[in-house]
Task: inverse folding
C-alpha cells in the first residue's frame, strides 16, 4: 500500500454571469482566481506493474471584490457595477488504474 496526503496552491479560470431576462440586465466577469487544495489518497499494487488507486481532492477558490461588467445596471443609489464575493468549493474522488511501462 502507498498512502499519501497532498496540499498546495490551486487556480482556475472562473466565469461569473448574471442573466435577468425580465429586466434585461446581463452582467459578466471572468478571470483567473487563486486558492488552495488538499487531498488524500491510497494506491495498492495489484501486479508488478499495475496498481489501483483512489484519490480525494478538495479545492477552495475565494473571489473577493470582483467587479462584474454590467453595461445596463445604471448609476446612482442602488445601481451601478455589481461587486461579487464568492467562495467556490470543489470536492472530487478519482479511482485510477496505473500501468508502469518497463524502462
Result:
Amino acid at each position: 500500500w502507498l498512502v499519501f496526503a497532498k496540499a498546495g496552491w490551486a487556480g482556475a479560470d472562473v466565469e461569473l454571469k448574471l442573466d435577468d431576462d425580465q429586466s434585461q440586465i446581463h452582467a459578466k466577469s471572468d478571470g483567473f482566481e487563486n486558492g488552495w487544495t488538499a487531498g488524500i489518497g491510497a494506491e495498492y499494487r495489484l501486479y508488478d506493474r499495475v496498481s489501483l488507486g483512489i484519490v480525494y481532492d478538495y479545492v477552495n477558490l475565494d473571489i473577493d471584490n470582483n467587479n462584474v461588467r454590467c453595461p445596463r445596471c445604471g448609476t446612482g443609489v442602488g445601481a451601478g457595477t455589481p461587486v461579487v464575493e464568492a467562495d467556490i468549493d470543489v470536492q472530487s474522488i478519482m479511482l485510477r488504474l496505473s500501468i508502469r511501462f518497463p524502462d
Observations:
- The first strand starts at residue 2 and ends at 20.
